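look at this stuff:

>
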Amino acid sequence: MAGLVGPFALSGLINGIFALAFGLLVIFKNRKSRINRLFFFMTVMVAFWSFCYWRWLLSTSHADALFWIRLLSVWSLLIPIYYFHWTVTLLDLNKAHRFLLRSVYVAALFLLFFSFSKLFVTDVSPKLFFPFWPTPGILYTFYLLTIYLGLVAYGLFLLLKNYRGAPMAKQGQIFYVVLGSLLGFGGGATNFFLWYNVPIPPYGNFLVTLFPFFLGYAILKHKLFDLRAVATELLIFSIWMFLLVRALLASTLLDRLLDLGLLSLLIPFGILLLRSVLREVEAREKIEAMAVELAVANEELKKLDAAKSEFISIAGHQLRTPLTIIKGYTSMVLEGSFGKIEAAAREALHKVFISTTTLANLVSDLLDLSRIESGKIRYEFKDIRVSDIVNGVIQELEETARIKDIRVILNDQVPPAVRALADFDKLHEVVINLIDNAIKYSTEGPVEVGLKYDAAGKKIILSVKDRGMGIKPEDISKLFTKFMRSEDAKKIRPEGMGLGLYLAKKIVEDHKGRVSVKSPGLGQGSTFFVEIPTHA
C-alpha cells in the first residue's frame, strides 16, 4: 500500500515546489502590484497546503496524520478566498464585491476557529489503499459547498462574463486564468470523493501544478513577458526549491551536505542563465516596441503624404488654367496675331514663353505624380498610331530646337497599319519628355528619333538619341526614381524636379511596356528606348 500512496504524496511535494517557485517569480517581477501580491499570497497557501498534503500521506501514526490533515484544511480554506479576491482585482471589480469579500473573510475566520475540531475534520481512517484518510465534519461540508465550490464557481462566472467585452489582450489573459482554474480546482476536487466515501483515488491532484502555472503566466503575459523566460525561471526556481527541500529532509549529514553543495553550484549558474535569457527577451521587446513606433510613424507619414498629394492636386489645378492662358497669348503674340513686335520684345516674349512652358510642364508632372500616388490616374486606351504622337511632338518642340540650333531627325520605319492600344495624351507626355530632354541637355545636334516595328516581339520601339552630357554608369539604375537628378544634370538645368522620367516609366509600365536607357558614359550622349506593345 505504501507503494501506491507514494506517487500521491510526491504530487503534493511537486505541487508545493512549483507553487512557491511561481509565486516568487511573479512577486519579484513587480512587488508593488496588488495583483502580483495577491497571487503570491495565494501560491504560498497552495504551497503550504501541498507540503501538508505530502506530510499527511507519509504519516505513520494516527496522531500525525490527523494533525497534518487539519493543518492542511486551514490552507485549503484560504485558497479559494484568495483566489476570488485575486480574480475580482484582476477584473477591477473590487468595489462591486467589497461586501462579499468582507463576508467571506469573516466566514473564514469563523471556520478557522473550528479547523482543529471534530466539527471540521472528524477523524482519519483507512480508505482504499490509504491508511489515514479524513472524514468531514459538518462545517467542512459547509466550507466545501459555499467557499470551495460556490466562491470558485462565482469567480469563474465573472471571468467568463467579462471575457466577451474585453480587449483581445485581456481575453487572452482571462483564457489562461479560466484554464488554470478549471485544471487546478478541478484536479484538487478529486480529493473530495474519498472524504465522502466515493471510492475514487485523487488522480487529479497531479493537475494542481498547472493552477499557479497558468495563472502566473496570465499575469506575466499581460505584462508582455516572454513565455520562454517564464519557463526558464520556473525551471531554475523549481530546481533550487527541490534541492533545498531535499537538503532539509535529508536523513544523513552527508546527503544534506551534497544537496547543499549542489545547490550552491546551481544558484550562480541559474542566475547567469536567467540574465542571458532576460537580456535576449528585453532586446526583442525593444525591437518590437520600435517596430510598433515605426508603424505608427509610417501611418502618420502616409497621412502627411496624402495631404501633400491633395494639396499638389488642388494647387496644380488652380495654376494650370492661368499658365495655359499665358502660354497661349504669348504664342499668339510671337506669331504676330496682334501685329508686328520689335526684336527686343520678341526675345523677352520668347523667354516668357519658354519659362511658362517649363512651369506648365512641371505643374502637369506634379498633377500626374499626385494621381499616380493616390491611385486616381485614369487612362483612355484607344487604337492609335504612335507615329502620329511622335510627329506631333517634334512639331511642338520645333521652336525649342530652333533656339538651341539643334536639328531633330525622325526615322520612322513603322508601317501605317501597325497600331497600339494606348492613351494618346499620356503617351504624348512620355514622348515630349524624352525629346525635350534630348534637346535641352544637348549642346550640339542632331537629336535622332527612331521608330521601328518588332514583328516578332509585337511591339513598337521608340528611340531618342542625343549627343549631350551622357550618363554615369552608377546613375543609370537610379535615373527613373522619383526626384532623382544627377549632379551634372542639375548644373545644366537647375530648375528641373526629377519627375519626368519617373512619370514616363510609370505611364509606359501601365501600358505594359518598358523604358530603358543606354549611355557610353559622361560626355558621350545617351539613348532612351520606349517599348509599347502593338494592338493585336
Strands lie at 121-127, 130-136, 381-384, 408-412, 420-423, 447-454, 459-466, 514-518, 526-533.
